[in-house]
Amino acid sequence: LHDGEVHRLITYIFVYEDLISLTCGAIIIWYFAGSFEKNVGTVKHCILTATFSVLSALLYLFLEPLVSRLLEVGDAKGFMPVAFATLGVSTTRSRMKRTLVFGCKVPVVLVPWFGLCIAWFVPHSSLLGNLCGLLVGEAYGLGYCFCLDFPESVGSKLDQVFPFTLLKRVPGLKYIPASLAERRASENS
């Protein structure tokens, strides 16, 4: 930010060091972001992806000087911080109380923390970046970022404007409508 590189608050999610980290990022995007998009719609997913990216980066920039005194901190790269944010939202707002992890029943709210431990072993993954993403997602899921929520009617109106009208026309891309009624109708058909 000191150098005026504000664009890096969002573009870091597209940076990967090697094929292994790119593959891990693609799997995470496909699994976590895909299920999150099904729940909120494409419009809200796109807006929240950008928002989670920026908020995670800002939190990372705030915590990095403090944490770097104790540990070696890697740069935040790839989609994993945003994926942890979406996972944090999903588990915080989940109606399920318990789920299976490696054959053991655990509280659903602990699942992202187990994932954070596993992500520590992903090459070129930033533990602090992932933690920041998880904290942002948990805060949003608990309602502390209520200003980021917008009514379904606004999402439906955004469905009708560029670039979302263009996304609807891309062959092979599944567009999820913002309206809950439209999402349910498309699931049933």
TrEMBL record:
Q: How does it sit in the membrane?
A: Multi-pass membrane protein
**GO molecular function list:** serine-type endopeptidase activity
Q: Which InterPro entries match?
A: Peptidase_S54_rhomboid_dom, Rhomboid-like_sf
**GO annotations of cellular component type:** membrane
Tell me which UniProt keywords the record has, alphabetically: Membrane, Transmembrane, Transmembrane helix
Entry's transmembrane regions: 12-33, 45-63, 100-121, 127-147
Its subcellular locations are:
Membrane
Looking at the record, the residues that make up the Peptidase S54 rhomboid domain are: 4-144
The name this protein carries in UniProt is: RHBD2 protein
Q: Which gene encodes it?
A: Rhbdd2
